[in-house]
Structure formats: C-alpha cells, structure tokens
Amino acid sequence: MTMLASLNPATGDVVGEVPVTSPDEVQTAVHRARSAQPAWAALGLEGRARVLKRAADIFTERVDMHAELMTREQGKPLREARAEARGLGSGLAHEVDEMVEALAPDLMESDGHRSTIYHDPLGVVGAITPWNFPMSMPNWMVLPSLMAGNTVVLKPSEETPLCGQAYADVLNEVLPEDVLVVVHGADDQGKALVQSDADMIAFTGSREVGKHIMREASGTLKRVVLELGGKDPMIVLDDADIEKAAKFAAFNSFRNCGQVCVSTERIFVLESIADEFEAALTQLASALRVGDGLEESDVGPMVNAQQRDHVLAQIDAAVGAGATVLTGGDGHHDNFVTPTVLTGVTEMMDIGTVETFGPVACVTRVASVDEAVERANDTHFGLGAVVFGGDTEETESVARRLTAGMIGVNRSAGGVPGTPWVGARESGFGFHKSKDGHRQFTQTRVLTRPVR
Ligand code: NAD
Fold first, then answer.
1. Quick one: 21 and 110 in the same domain?
2. Of the residues 101, 126, 207, 446, which has the maximum number of CB atoms within 10 A of its CB?
3. Which pLDDT value is given to residue 1?
C-alpha cells in the first residue's frame, strides 16, 4: 500500500501518514457513497439534523487535540488553530438549524393552484479541499451536502490529510457507514473524483484548478461550486482612523502567514496619509514573532518550500522592479518568511497581480479616490475588499464601487452570520453559507396541483 507522509512545515518531521487511494478506488468510494445515499436521505431533514448535532460534543472534546494537529501539520499558530477547532463544535448546532430552515420546502399559490418547491438531494457530492483551513474548509462543504441528504466523498489536501481525516473521523462516529467516505491523494485523486459519476463537485482551492474542474465537469454537466483564490484590495481614505487601518492591514496580511483567501494583498493609500500609515504598519509588522506555531509565535511557517519560494521570488522581483522594503523582505529560516512590508508596488510586478498567499503587505500610494477604486478593481479576482475611511456615506459609496463579492467598511470583508461567502469574477462560481449557499447542494424540484 502506498502511503502519503504528512510533514510538519516548521520542523520537517513526519507528523503521520495515510494510505493513498488509487484513482480506481476513488470510483469505488463513490459507489459506496451512492449505496448509502437513499437510506441517509430517507431520515429526512430533522432526522439528519439530529444525527449530525451529536458530533458537536465530540468536536468540542477534541479542540486541543485538533488544534495541536493543525499547528503541527499546517503550521498556523496554536491560537489560530484553537479558534478554528473550537468553531467546529460551537457553531455546529446553529449551522444545522440554519440548514433545516433553508432546505425545508417552500409553498407558493396562484389562481387556485399550489406549487411546492422541494430542495432534494443531488446524490453524491465530491468535496475537494485546500490546506489553509484544513478542518473548517471540509466542514463548509461536507455539512450542507449531508444536511441536504447527499452522501459525500471527501478528498482533503495532500498537505493536510491528517486534519481532513480527523474531521471526518468525528462525523463518522455519528453517521451511518459510507455516508461520508474519505479518499487520500493529490491532483490525480482529485481528477479521478471529478471524472467519477459523483453528481456534484464542491471545490475550494486555486483559480487554475477551479478552471480545470469546470472544464472537466462540463462533459456530464456535473454541478460545481468553486471557491477560488483572491488578490484582495484594501483602500485607505484620507479621513480613515490610520491606527485602526494599520492594525487591520497587519492582522489581515499576516494571519495564517498570509495564507488566507481573503488576505489583504494590495493596499491603496491616499498620498496625504501614506507616510503615517506606512510607519504604523511597518512598526506592527516588525514586532511580530516568527516561529513554530506550537511555541509563542505570531507567524508560523509557510506550508511548504514551494510556497516559500513563490513568495520570496515575488518579493525579489518586486524589489528588482522598483518596490522598497520597509521591513522583512527575506527568508527567515527553513520554511519561514519574515513578515514583509513593501511600498511602491505596481501592477507591472507579479506581486501586484498574482495571488501571493504569504506574509507580505503591499502598499501603493494613490493620488485620488478614483485612482484607488480603479486600481483596486483592476484584477481578474473578486473575493473580498475593504475600505477604511470616515464613518460617512462617502466611504460607503467608495465601497459600493468595488467589484469584489464581499466588501467590508472599516472591518473585514466577510458578512455577519447567515450571509453568503461569495466570490465575484474569477474568485468563485457559486457561494457558501446562507440560505442560497445551502441550496446549491440540492436539486430544486417543483410540484404543482390545484388547491384542494
Ligand atoms: P489547490 O487548487 O492547489 O488544491 C486544492 C485541492 O485540489 C487539493 O485537495 C488538491 O489535491 C486538489 N487538486 C489539485 N489539482 C487538481 C485537479 N486538477 N483536479 C481536481 N483536484 C485537484 O489549492 P491549495 O494550494 O490547496 O489552496 C490554496 C488556494 O485555495 C488559494 O488560491 C486560496 O485563495 C484558495 N482558497 C479559497 C477559499 C475561498 O473561500 N474562496 C478558501 C480557502 C482557500
């Protein structure tokens, strides 16, 4: 049996290993999930909700264990890993209730006729997930799929197979056999899942792979939900609270070592406040402690050497093309990169247009609000965007001109609970969470009859 070894990015040590699923076995996994689907669907919405809610306590009991595993396998600081692990248990009952509400049939009547709109299961959902939130990303796709009455074949990232397995192990303690099947491997196993006869592919990952999946799925018109990368802008207006804006920029450029789809990757600052903003951001960035996430550190390692090299190459090329390093700018040691602030970044540089996914805050000074908006929107991506400015209608009107799917004013981009997580343009196809998000995992079916 071929094994996949999972390495600790901070130390290079083997954290554990999982058996690799051969591409042929991926189709077998889909068959197993398909056999289990009718009985799972027959439990009904309330029945499935009861089963899944039993997992909440198990997730809660395992917070410390899951957090430590996430830090060892993916590298994020333990504090961030704990928050991710805690959310799985504490949020589960509420999320399930929200799904029950979203997936219940709707009724409409007109001219003596009544239509019932059912949200039926699709069948088998293939979920393909990334490594950066190695337990919550599977949860975002597996939970609504199961609540809708589908069964699921989950392929976690090859960088974090142990976290994916640990997540599924909890659900499999409460689920009937084969309702959730895990397959392990890399792109070959992902491709096999897309080519299998699964009814839907729910994918979170890079834009390039998302495009590949959409092309492959078109052969059978397989449903797809694609949550892809970003190059999120932040605009800092001249009436912004500069300290607050710098704090946000530091937090959102460096958390999870910048390996977040809605990381702040481009900062457009009005010239008049740029000196002050850059000074505040540089001070915050240079105070961050770099090190193994199991120790007292703020910024852990990049997930692997390839990701580190990509980030360092982008920094070097930007400096070669005229950007200035205000702090950092180099490899720290091994897979670690020093938190970096660059200024003078332009769209002529790779780092100004291509997703970095690393601990770099890129500042561009602009002469006007119009220039800030135009440059913020000058991208194929469209996941999140933020505007910092005075508490005025003007700040909000700047936000309304941005072309991202989620826009934050004086805060992060994601909406309040119950709102969709949605990418615009090439950052996404479909969305997660919210009533509409949950319904994507279903086949809508309308039954109409005369009112009795
Ligand atoms: P990735 O696209 O390299 O891999 C994601 C998953 O797809 C992995 O499980 C991988 O094995 C699998 N895969 C690779 N090639 C495949 C193929 N041809 N067919 C099918 N499956 C394939 O992404 P990654 O490096 O794991 O994650 C980082 C990316 O994810 C970033 O671009 C980030 O912005 C994005 N992301 C987006 C969101 C969001 O909500 N929009 C959330 C988290 C991460």
1. yes
2. 126
3. 87
Pocket test for ligand 1, best of 140, 201, 209, 383 (most atoms within 8 A of CB): 209
113 neighbors 450 (Cβ within 8 angstroms):
yes
- Domain count of the fold of the chain: 2
For 58, list phi and psi in degrees, rounded to 5: -70, -45
d(CA 439, CA 101): 11
Q: Choosing from 95, 227, 278, 355, which is the catalytic residue?
A: 227
Residues ≥6 apart with Cβ < 8 Å to 230: 261, 262, 263, 265, 355, 381, 382, 383, 384, 404, 423, 427
> Exposed, middle or buried: residue 185 (CB in 10 Å: 0-12, 13-18, 19+)?
buried
- Segments in 104-176 forming alpha helices (H): 136-147, 161-174
Q: Is residue 12 part of a domain?
A: yes
Q: Are 124 and 30 in contact (CB under 8 A)?
A: yes
For 197-333, where are the alpha helices, taking DSSP H only? 207-217, 242-254, 271-286, 305-320
Q: What pLDDT, in 10s, does the model give residues 304-322?
A: 999 999 999 999 999 999 9
Q: Would you say 319 and 351 are in contact if contact means Cβ atoms under 8 Å apart?
A: no
Mean pLDDT of the chain: 97
Are both 260 and 174 inside the same structural domain? no
Query: What gap in Å lies between CA 382 and CA 402, rounded to an integer?
Result: 9
Whether the CB of 194 sits within 6 Å of ligand 1: yes
Place 179 in a pLDDT band, splitting at 50, 70 and 90: very high
In a domain, 44, yes or no: yes
- Evaluate whether residue 420 is within a structural domain: no
What's the CA gap between 164 and 182, in Å, rounded?
Answer: 8
Using the 8-state DSSP alphabet, how is residue 220 labeled? Answer: G
Q: Would the pLDDT of 332 be above 90?
A: no
**205 CA distance to ligand 1 centroid (A)?**
2
Residues 396 and 248 in one domain: yes
Q: Which of 261, 264, 440 to mutate to test the pocket of ligand 1 (most atoms within 8 A of CB)?
A: 261
Q: Which two tokens stand for residue 243?
A: 């300290």
Residue 161 Cβ inside 6 Å of ligand 1? The answer reads: no
Tokens of 112: 């003596």
Contact 95, 143 (CB under 8 A): yes
Neighbours of 315 (CB within 10 A): 26
Instruction: Let me know whether 216 and 300 are in one domain.
Output: no
**132 CB within 6 A, ligand 1:** yes
Name the 3-class secondary structure at 63.
helix
The bridge status of strand 336-337 relative to strand 331-333 is antiparallel
The reply to whether 56 and 158 lie within a common domain is yes
Is 414 inside any structural domain?
Answer: no
Residue for token pair 């702040």: 264
